[in-house]
TrEMBL record:
Matches recorded under Pfam families: 2-oxoacid_dh, Biotin_lipoyl, E3_binding
Location of region: Disordered: 84-106, 200-234
Low complexity biased stretches: 208-230
E.C. code: 2.3.1.-
Assigned protein family: Belongs to the 2-oxoacid dehydrogenase family.
Species of provenance: Microbacterium salsuginis
The protein's required cofactors: (R)-lipoate
Domain Peripheral subunit-binding (PSBD): from-to ranges: 140-177
Domain called Lipoyl-binding: residue spans: 3-78
Record-given protein name: Dihydrolipoamide acetyltransferase component of pyruvate dehydrogenase complex
Keyword Acyltransferase assigned: yes
InterPro entries on file: 2-oxoacid_DH_actylTfrase (IPR001078), 2-oxoacid_DH_E2_comp (IPR050743), Biotin_lipoyl (IPR000089), CAT-like_dom_sf (IPR023213), E3-bd_dom_sf (IPR036625), PSBD (IPR004167), Single_hybrid_motif (IPR011053)
PROSITE patterns according to UniProt: BIOTINYL_LIPOYL (PS50968), PSBD (PS51826)
Alphabetical UniProt keywords: Acyltransferase, Lipoyl, Transferase
Length: 466
């Protein structure tokens, strides 16, 4: 039994040194070719290094946390070539074990070097989790591609390789991720008993912009036009800023100047949402209630909040310092254009409502707003808002967050457009889902996941049954 020494390789990034972040094996462990040995951190990224040898781990030559140069010895592996026969690295398409390369027979680290490569075959059927991990590390892919797949939640063994040597490329991973469900392998938590969670924000607090100046007319940040001279031709009109318009302008200026807004958006094939709406309208259970795509959008937002609760949070300036308040319930705000101006009443505890009850609540909210009967209590305590700009024929927007919330979602108009389905251009009902978020509370990756989750439900509303 010979002993092989694994030297820290150049992973193709112009690497000169790397830190040993975490060993994935221990002395005495058995490893196959391409089993992950260690995670290293370069100047650019975290990289998993697979084994070029099959055998038994001997000595870990570098402790975790230490930085070493390229070419330094980091681990020894005793080759598995004893009397019991050669070690195996996987299975053939027919289920027979495949022998590991002997030392000196061209065993190479996947993604590095030349002079041979490890053959890999995609599994034809689903396998247990442990087997899928082993299959993943047996795929031919460079470390940067492996990291991309890990970041996108893509199982490399399930990706069809297009590289000239049978390797998985960056385009292969991105294409597979775009075709897969964005919430695959992500657990959706249940609603808990705790309604709010407070997260302290450590000092120093982030600076905020100075308050907007008070301008003539009394409304913060709103310019009230000077009263014009009498104009016999009626070329100008003066409108006093008061009531709902004054409250709205003050709230929007407060939000825009205090919360750093960022917006994201994505186009969505909403054909199946339109089909579901049609079926619900024909259902006797929904005969006496209005059904529209907004109902599916509302259900999608409530579902997505469970998976990204920070979008349902709020930034609070408290006496002991700022804190983030995470709400474990959804008071769903619906922006409504009324003769009085823009109102944002909300449906209390919307997460507890069935599809039918939510449809009734949306209908009641809309009718009450149009009739001017929305009370102040109906507009207080909202946690996240939907604005349906599609009713005005708009595709997308960058809405301003309602004060006291961290996110707002906009639903664009749904119209037929050419869309590529299975390689063919077909007419589909397409919409755009956009959203703005408070960057003090939630980062771009969280809001992007949230919007992607909402889009996934609009693409396939049957997933709400999971």
């Amino acid at each position: 039994m010979s002993t092989q020494t694994f030297l820290l390789p150049d992973v193709g990034e112009g690497l000169t040194e790397a830190e040993i972040v975490a060993w994935r094996v221990s002395p005495g462990d058995s490893v196959a070719v391409n089993d992950v040995l260690v995670e290293i951190e370069t100047a650019k990224s975290l990289v998993e290094l697979p084994s070029p040898f099959a055998g038994t781990v001997g000595e870990l030559l570098v402790p975790e946390g230490e930085t070493v140069n390229v070419g330094a010895a980091i681990i020894t592996i005793a080759s598995a070539t004893d009397a019991t026969g050669p070690a195996t690295v996987g299975q053939s398409e027919h289920g027979e074990p495949e022998p590991a390369p002997e030392a000196g027979e061209g065993a190479v680290l996947v993604g590095y070097g030349s002079g041979g490569h490890v053959q890999s075959r995609r599994r034809k059927t689903a396998a247990p989790a442990a087997q899928r991990v082993a299959a993943s590390v047996g795929v031919i892919a460079k470390p940067p591609i492996r990291k991309l797949a890990r970041d996108l939640g893509v199982e490399l063994a399930a990706v069809s390789p297009s590289g000239p040597a049978g390797e998985v490329t960056r385009d292969d991973v991105v294409r597979h991720a775009s075709q897969a469900s964005v919430f695959r392998n992500i657990e959706t938590p249940e609603w808990g008993d705790v309604r709010e969670e407070r997260i302290p924000v450590p000092a120093p607090q982030r600076p905020t912009r100075p308050a907007a100046p008070t301008r003539p007319g009394g409304a913060v940040g709103t310019v009230a036009p000077a009263t014009p001279a009498p104009d016999a031709e009626g070329r100008e009109e003066t409108i006093a800023v008061k009531g709902v318009r004054k409250a709205t302008s003050s709230a929007m200026v407060q939000s825009a100047y205090s919360a750093p807004h960022v917006s994201v958006w994505t186009d969505v094939d909403a054909t199946r949402t339109m089909e579901l709406v049609k079926r619900l309208k024909a259902s006797p259970d929904f005969a006496d209630v209005k059904v529209s795509p907004l109902l599916i959008m509302a259900r999608a937002v409530i579902w997505a909040v469970r998976r990204t609760p920070m979008v349902n949070a709020a930034w609070v300036d408290a006496e002991g310092g700022a804190e983030i308040r995470v709400r474990r319930y959804v008071n769903l705000g619906i922006a409504a254009a009324t003769p009085r101006g823009l109102l944002v009443p909300n449906i209390k505890d919307a997460q507890d409502l069935s599809m039918r009850d939510l449809a009734r609540a949306l209908e009641k909210l809309t009718l009450t707003a149009r009739e001017g009967r929305t009370t102040p209590a109906d507009q207080q305590g909202g946690t996240i808002t939907i604005t349906n700009i599609g009713v005005f024929g708009m595709d997308a927007g960058t809405p301003i967050i309602n004060p006291g919330e961290a996110g707002i979602v906009a639903m664009g108009t749904i119209r037929q457009k050419p869309w590529v389905v299975d390689g063919e251009v077909r007419p589909r009902f397409v919409t755009t889902v956009s959203g703005s978020f408070d960057h003090r509370v939630i980062d771009g990756d969280g809001m992007s996941r949230f919007i992607a989750d909402v889009a996934s439900i609009l693409e396939e509303p049957a997933l709400l049954l999971d």
